[in-house]
Amino acid sequence: MTRLRFLALCGSLLITGQAQADAWRSVENQGFIRFTARLEGAEAPGTFRRFDVGLDFGGPESGDEQLRVEIDITSADMFSSDLNEGIADPAWFDFENHRNARFESNQVLSRGSGTFLARGELTLKGVTHAVEVPFQWVESAGIAVMEGNLVLLRGDFNIGSGEWANEDSIGQNVELQFEVKLAREQ
Question: Per the confidence metrics, is the pTM higher than 0.70?
Answer without folding.
Answer: yes
